[in-house]
Design a protein that fits this description.
By secondary structure, the protein is α/β, with parallel strands linked by helices. The protein has helices at 7-20, 41-48, 113-116, 119-122, 157-173, 187-197, 217-230, 236-239, 245-249, 252-255, 289-319, 338-356, and strands at 56-62, 67-74, 79-86, 97-101, 129-133, 179-184, 202-208, 264-270, 326-331. Helix 1 packs across helix 11 (289-319). The longest helix is centred in the C-terminal third of the chain and has 31 residues, at 289-319. The radius of gyration is 19 Å and the shape is globular.
């Protein structure tokens, strides 16, 4: 598949995105920890949890159905991180873990897996723990070189997600120790870098509508829009000046060969043209013409841009002889929106489940 760069598309992306995004509410803290009710699954989780250095479980709270809320203290970030968790169908025996990342807003806005995709229902009856970290808005779930006051201060997400958190989760939830990872939009970049940080940690990686490009002006501009225009943060606090070595080191297209023989890859992207979830009666549109127009125009522009990145990733995967390791789903129509990401999660689940050794 061949794709050409179009500067007009990038200019449209910058203008449309900055014109339509609004300031997002900030999640200010995890709150006061309270003991779980005796005899509940949350109480068992608290009792089983083991610390990993200064990283430890602070609290566990039972939610409705198969849902649970955890708070884990991160040693590297020096703060408490809330986690949304879905428990397996049978909690009496070990289950693997899917780390499912939110997009740019980090779940601190209304755009989260729990609120938009009803994943509690999707995973009901499935033998898997699903862990979604919160408070990661506009951080790209990476290790920042410097603290940023607009983004909770210190951000060491690669360290937290690959080194600190897994041992705590494994002990608290009684997992099998087998992990997979998936993310949407901006975290569709992050999932590759987390896998590159520790290629043995995840058995499979899913990336939905991400731009795995941090080394070219196109990818760098996209990141600057997210961090500076939307997050009101200093981009240089993340990986230094744009184009410096840390930006190159975090480019999945350049570094994808390092994952050869590692996790299975499921990568999806639509074309940006209106598709089946871009109608007035689509979930989330609810008959609102303005909402539909925004999804079709802005969501179409963003998806077309990420589609170009994903085609370049496709070429890099094949150039590195990884074709048997990866599956790419290029949809002929679809925008940068939740209807397609719900489909992506459903479509990638068989690969993720098989990689974890759990029933589909």
């Amino acid at each position: 598949m061949r794709v050409t760069k179009k500067s007009r598309r990038l200019k449209a992306l910058i203008g449309a995105t900055t014109a339509t995004v609004a300031a997002l509410p900030v999640f200010l803290g995890a709150g006061v920890a309270t003991a779980a009710a005796p005899g509940t699954d949350a109480a068992k989780v608290e009792a089983a949890a083991q610390s990993n250095g200064g990283t430890k479980l602070v609290s566990a709270k039972q939610g409705t159905g198969n849902k649970m809320s955890l708070v884990v203290r991160s040693e590297s970030m020096g703060r408490d991180i809330p986690l949304e968790v879905i428990r397996p169908a049978d909690t009496s025996k070990p289950a693997p873990t899917l780390y499912l990342l939110n997009g740019a807003g980090g779940g601190e806005d209304s755009a989260s897996w729990q609120k938009q995709a009803d994943i509690g229902t999707f995973f009901a009856g499935k033998q898997v723990n699903v862990v979604t970290p919160m408070q990661g808005a506009f951080t790209y779930y990476t290790d920042w070189q410097k603290a940023d006051p607009s983004l909770h201060g210190a951000n060491k997400w690669e360290t937290f997600l690959t080194e600190e958190l897994p041992p705590v989760i494994d002990s608290a939830l009684g997992t099998t120790g087998v992990n997979t990872l998936a993310g949407i939009s901006t975290s569709g970049t992050s999932v590759f870098n987390l896998a590159l940080k520790d290629p043995q940690l995840y058995k499979a990686v899913g990336a939905y509508s991400g731009c795995a490009d941090t080394a070219t002006p196109v990818g760098q501009t996209y990141i600057q829009i997210v961090i500076a225009a939307r997050g009101d943060a200093d981009t240089e606090n993340m990986w230094g000046p744009v184009g410096s070595p840390d930006w190159i080191a975090h480019d999945p297209i350049i570094n994808i060969g390092k994952l050869r023989g590692g996790p299975k890859l499921y990568v999806s992207n639509a074309s940006g043209l209106p598709g089946p979830h871009d109608t007035l009666d689509s979930q989330g549109i609810n008959g609102n013409v303005g909402t539909l127009a925004n999804q079709v125009v802005v969501g179409g522009i963003i998806e077309a841009a990420t589609n170009e990145c994903t085609h370049r990733l496709f070429n890099a995967v094949n150039a590195n002889g990884m074709g048997e390791q990866a599956f790419f789903d290029f949809k002929p129509a679809g925008t940068h929106s939740w209807g397609y990401w719900r489909d992506d999660l459903n479509n990638s689940w068989p690969m993720l489940a098989d990689a974890m050794g759990t029933p589909r």
